[in-house]
Amino acid sequence: MSPGSDQPNAVRRVVLPSGKTIEVVYFTDGAPERGAPAQSSPALLHHCPQCASELVYPTAWEEAGEDLWSLKLRCPNCEWRSQGSYDRATVERLDEELDRGAHAVVTDLKALMRANMEAEIDSFVSALDADDIWPIDF
């Protein structure tokens, strides 16, 4: 098809090292390009397609356009890795999942710290009650 037809296209602005900005127009026929990175389902970037883990996280990211981000993803369970470009809304959903995961980790950490401290206090009180603590212990 010729560029003047009603073929779907995408425009991307690229800033060259000289500072000059050019617009690159990509014409597509609706089929994915060969060699283009596979894109996961937009709502499921944190899900691993290999092992179904929900722990996938980005190892690198950079802005690839106005509303496009290039991400390198990694699954810590099976070491699956992928690279792809995703729209801003998809990346924001991944960011929300990462925030939820971080909150869960911090909540669990606080609970473990409290349980460990309670166990240490109980152990210390038991040692005091049994006269097992001497000045030399300090």
Strand-helix topology:
Blueprint: E1 9-15, E2 21-27, E3 57-65, E4 68-74, E5 81-87, H1 88-129
Antiparallel strand pairs: 1-2, 3-4, 4-5
Explain what the structure shows.
The chain has 138 residues and is of the alpha+beta class. The protein has one domain. Helices cover 30% and strands 27% of the residues. It is built from 1 helix and 5 strands; from the N terminus they run βββββα. The protein has one helix at residues 88-129, and strands at residues 9-15, 21-27, 57-65, 68-74, 81-87. It has a 3-stranded antiparallel sheet, covered by helices on one side. Strands 1-2 form a two-stranded antiparallel ribbon. A hairpin with a 2-residue loop joins strand 3 (57-65) and strand 4. The protein is elongated. The model is unreliable at 30-42 (pLDDT under 50).
